[in-house]
Amino acid sequence: MNKQRFLTFFLVIAFLGSNLEGPGFSRTVFAADDRHVATQISNTATIPLADIVQIAAGELHTCALTKAGGVKCWGSNEAGQLGNGSTQSHTMPKDVMGLSRDVTALSSGGYHTCALTTGGGVKCWGWNAYGQLGNGSTEPVLLPLDVIGLKRKVKAVAAGLRHTCILTADGGVECWGDNNAGQLGNGTISDSSIPLDVVGLQSGAIAISTGSEHTCSLLGSGLVKCWGRNSEGQLGNGNTVNSNLAVDVVAIDEEVRAISAGAYYTCALTLLHGVKCWGDNNDGQLGNGSNDNSSVPLDVNDLNHEVSAISAGNSSMCVLTTANGVKCWGRNLLGVLGIGNTDARTLPVDVIGLNSGIGSISVGGKHSCSVTLTSSVKCWGSNSEGQLGNGVAANQRAPVAVFDLNDASSAIGVGDSHSCVLMSSGAVTCWGANRYGQLGNGTFIFRQRPVEVTGLDNDVIALSVGSYFTCALTTAGGVKCWGFNGSGQLGNGSKVNRSTPGNVINLRSGVRAISAGRDHVCALTTSGGVQCWGLNHAGQLGNGNHNAYGIPVQVSGLDNDVRAIAAGEGHTCALMMAGNVKCWGQNNGGQLGNSSTISTSIPINVSGLSSRVSAIGVGRYHTCVLTTAGGVQCWGWNGNGQLGNGSTKPSSHAMYVSGLESDVSAISVGDFQNCALTTMGAIKCWGWNGYGQLGNGSKTDSSTPVDVIGLDSGVSAISTKGHHTCALLTTGGAQCWGENSLGQLGDGRAWATAPVDVIVLEFDHLVYLPMVAR
Question: Lowest-pLDDT range, 60-64, 241-245, 335-339, 385-389?
Answer without folding.
Answer: 385-389
